[in-house]
Model the fold of this input.
Amino acid sequence: MSQELIVELVEAGVHFGHQRQKWDPRMKPYLLEERNKIHLLDVGKTVEQIQEASEFLSKLAGKKKSVLFVGCKRQAQDAVKQAAEETGQFYVNHRWLGGTLTNLETIRKSVNRLAYLESIEKSPDFKKMGKKELASLNRERAKLFRNLAGIRNMEKAPDALVIVDSARESIAVAEARKKNIPIVALVDSNANPDLIDYPIAANDDAIRSVRTVLRILIEPMIARSGGK
Done:
């Protein structure tokens, strides 16, 4: 176990869980102690979980498999997008659209709609459209882009998910389990780790904590795949 890694995680606040009253009893094996009514996570176990999860993800990268990074809370949005872009993978960082995994055909229709709206200026009907209609279409385009930008090229279900805050992203977890897609996820003291194939006990509410864990996870992926 790397002492340097433990220090890095502690400095990033990875060990801070939720208040005692919000805890999920199934997280008990990953808790170290309670301090000021706040649960502290066992960083030693977090390190072991990160190592196991990163090995799994790096093997996928080596086989050119696809991974979908998911994190729609404010603290995770930028980190999730950056992790996906650095590994050449997919991401959802604004809103999980129901059916993203279980009804991908409908998602692909929305992607086609986005492509149409982006090329609408080349349409013969463009000059016939009024300002209100164009404004409405522009709003629709912006909304679709925000939700689909990270998965517009995802034509089939991914080979794995990496989720920040498994409790919040419960729909994504449920869809992945239904499709038997392995899940790597940051699980805070309020989450159910039994739903996750590769749970990582970690603070999922602090930006620095999220960034640190994701960075450690993707470094082997980048090395295994030969770079960005």
User: Anything to note?
Assistant: The beta strands are 16-19, 31-35, 38-41, 67-70, 90-92, 160-164, 183-187, 198-201. Residues 87 and 227 are 8 Å apart (CA to CA). Residues 43-62 form the longest helix (20 residues).
